[in-house]
Structures are given as structure tokens and as C-alpha cells.
Amino acid sequence: MRAFLALARTALRxxxxxxxxxxxGVATQLAFGFLYASVYQAFYAGGSGQGDLTLAQTVGYVxxxxxxxxxxxxSGLRDIDAMMRDGRIAFELVRPRDLFSMxxxxxxxxxxxxxxxxxxxxxxxxxxxxxxxxxxxALPMLPLGALSLLLGMLVSAxxxxxxxxxxxxTVSGQGINRFLPMIGSFLAGNILPLGLLPAGLRxxxxxxxxxxxxxxxxxxxxxxxxxxxxxxVVGLQLFWLVxxxxxxxxxVGAGARKCMVQGG
Amino acid sequence: xxxxxxxxxxxxxxxRSQMQYRASFAMQTLGNFLxxxxxxxxxxxxxxxxxxxxxxxxxxxxxxxxxxxxxxxLAEGIGRGFDEFARTIREGNFDRVLLRPRxxxxxxxxxxxxxxxxxxxxxxxxxxxxxxxxxxxxxxxxQGLLLAACVIGGTMLFLGVLFLQAAACFWTLESLEVFNIxxxxxxxxxxxxxxxxxxxxxxxxxxxxPLGCLNYLPSAVLFGKDxxxxxxxxxxxxxxxxxxxxxxxxxxxxxxxxxRSSGS
Lengths: 264, 264
Prior knowledge:
The complex is a heterodimer of chains A (264) and B (264).
Chain A: H1 2-16, H2 19-45, H3 55-67, H4 80-86, H5 89-94, H6 99-128, H7 142-170, H8 176-188, H9 199-205, H10 209-213, H11 215-221, H12 227-258
Helix pairs in contact in A: 1-6, 2-3, 2-6, 3-6, 6-7, 7-11, 7-12, 11-12
Chain B: H1 2-19, H2 22-50, H3 58-78, H4 80-83, H5 85-90, H6 94-99, H7 104-111, H8 118-133, H9 141-172, H10 179-189, H11 199-208, H12 212-222, H13 233-236, H14 239-258
Helix pairs in contact in B: 1-7, 2-8, 3-8, 3-9, 3-12, 9-12, 9-14
């Protein structure tokens, strides 16, 4: 556990070096949030559609998904794919720590550290906006929402570790690693709120692990579910966390066993 | 004539070097294609849920989307050298450009041609075709020419943005990420009819970065929407792209005059 925390802290400090990039990210996320909010307002002006979200909830969802943009598993751990190619992976394998836990710790900080700057700034701006653009959080649901967000990060980190594990086979870091994040971001509700999709589709997608990363905490935070339903959602997140962590351990373990490092 | 031949000799040699990694090229193109498909899938899902957007149907919005995405893919493919220009400056490679007996703009343009953008190109063309298939009557010759002019004008406009972005590097020495708001944000914004935005944003997209002139104005005329402009203005609108490109070229010249070598 101590080693885990130390690794997480190092990765966190690394992230904090890129402050100006982070601010550019915040500006981009605010601009996109504003655009999406305008588009949804226009759609809602013509009727409320087949979704299960109100306009205010949809706008809230937009701001929260912009603030947590970098939490999504956009890729596996950086550098590991290069290590697979040039053999430096050997150093990773001989460390006296469990490989999966080590990578999982790094994945967790990769997914959470950018949020330390982005999330508060985006949310602060969104809470101050006028009228229909303002972010409205469901205050009584905040504790449960925060817990769900933490679980979302843990699920996302597990997904990141699985992607990293597949580098043992793909070596180039391409293939599945290019497509899964893109399709996953749609399935998670990052492209548009799952709540705006037709009923059958949205209920099905919400059962998948992708929704447990983003859609689940966001729905709770904007107050689209009551306490009972929120507890079910959190339960589903816990289930996926256990499943994906086990899968990640299996993938990384199998990869490490078959991995053969040439000399040099 | 000679210049055009030289351009193709240089650009095609870059294409050949990318084709050496055939599998990588295929993956990147497929990734580019899928990413833009997921993007449009989101729009289609919104329409399936809400029906229409302030009087615009999915087909009509597909035309808006198709024109700009086709333009953007072309500009990104042709102007890749400007996208990576910050590195050219930092590494002192621009000195070599200055020594050769050709224009600087020409050389940077000819240095790269990114063919993986064929992915977005195909997707944009497919979406445009889908939109046109939904038109009540087939396009006349004049309208077809207008569409072609829009795609060319749009390509020029996006190239102009790339010129500006690269020209800024002469002062900042690093790539400014805020330009992504202009390119990707602009792309996102004009995928929907401009009527849905607040007046300042609509005016910005018509008169400052006139992306709206290249898809919204002509499409509105094509589909017989109400506009505060006379119909003939749609036929002049694609010229806005050429004007913006000229502006970008002027900025580039100012930048070159300001250039001081890093000396490395």
C-alpha cells in the first residue's frame, strides 16, 4: 500500500508540471460545454424528446462530463508500449512489487491528477453562469455522487490497466487500443448523455461497464435518480470494479508470463 | 506549373514514407474513420430522440456536417506541416527552409501530406451523400457547383486557421492549444444550423471565422430556410474561405519577417 501511494504521488507531481496545458484544456472544455449546452437547449425548445432527463439536468450532465473529460480511459499507460518495443519492460518486471497493483496505481493517478485542476475550474465557471447555462447540482445527493465518482475513477483506472496489459500482445499500442476508447466514450455517455437516448437502448447501455465510469456518477450528481436507485447504481459500479480488476489482473499476469525480453 | 510538379513530387514522397508502414496506416485511417462516425452517431441519436432541431431535419444537418468535415479532412491532410510547425522552429529546421530557393509557405505545405485523414474524408463524404439523398428533388448544376465551391472554400478557411496557428509559433515557439477551440470547436459548432446560437456566436461564425458562410448560408438557401440575407449571397459566400486564407498568408509573412533562428 505504501509503495502504491508513493507511485501515485510521483505520477501526480508529474501531471502538475503541465499547468499551462491544463489551463488550455479548461478553456477548451468550457467552450465545448457551452456549445453542447446551446445545442441541447435548441433540441429541448422543440419538445422534451424520448430521454429521461430534463433540460437543466442535461446541461448539468454536460458540464460535469466536460470537467471529468480526462478521467476517461483514453489510452493505456504512456511509455509502457514503448517499453514493450525496446525491452525496457524488463525493468518493470523485476521490480519487487506486484505488476498489476503497480500499474493500477499509476493508472489511477493518470485518471485523477488532471481532474485536480480541471474539475474545480470547470465546475466553478459553470456554477456562475447565467440562466439556462448554469450547472445545478442535486445537493442532497452530493455525498453519494462523490462516492460514485470515486468508483467511476476506479473503474476507469481498471480499464486503463487492461488496455496497458494488452500492449504485451499488440506491442505497437495500436489496434484495440485505438478503437476501444472511442467506442467506450460513446457508451459511457461522453459524446452525449445516455439519458437522451431512446428508452431500450439507454437502459441496456447503463448495464455495461462503460456507463459505470461516467453516466452513473453524473446521473446521481444532477439528481436524475432518487436515493434508492442511486444505491443500485453504486452497487452495479462495485460489481464492475471487481470484475474489471480481476480481468485486469488476469490480462497483466498472462501477458507477463508469455512476455519474452530479448537480450541487449 | 513547375511549382505544382514540385509540390506533388515532395508531398507524394511523404505519402510514400507513410505507406511503408501499411498496417499502421490502415489502423490510423480506420481509427480516424471510426472516431468521426461515433461523432455523427451522436447527432443521429439526438435526432432519433427529439425528431427535429428548430425546423431542420437530420438530412439537412447531415449536409451541414458533411461539408465542414470534408473540408476539415482535406485541410488537415494537406496542411499537416503547419500543424507540426512548432517543432520545425524549435529544432532550428526553419533555417534550412529559408535557404532553399522556394517560398516558405510552399515548402512547409509540400513537406507533409497526411493520408490517414482519408478516414474522416470518407466519413464526411458519406454523411454529405446521406444528406443529399434526403433532398426532395435532385441537385441542379448550379447547386452542385455551389456545394463544390463550399467544400473548396471550407478547405481554404481551415488551411487559413492552420497558417495562423503556425504563424503564431514564430512568436510563442510552442503550439497554442487555444487554436483547437477554433478548429475542433468551430467544426462542432457549425455542424448545427447557426439559428440555434446566441447572436454573438452566430456573428462570430459568419463574420470573424466565417465557417458558417461555407455550410450554413448555402444550405439554408438550398433548403429554402428563412434568412436575413438575399439568396444570391449564398453563391458569393464561399469566397469567405479564400479571404480567410489570404489573411492567414499575411500573418505567415509577418511571422517570417519576425523570425530569429534558435541557432541550433
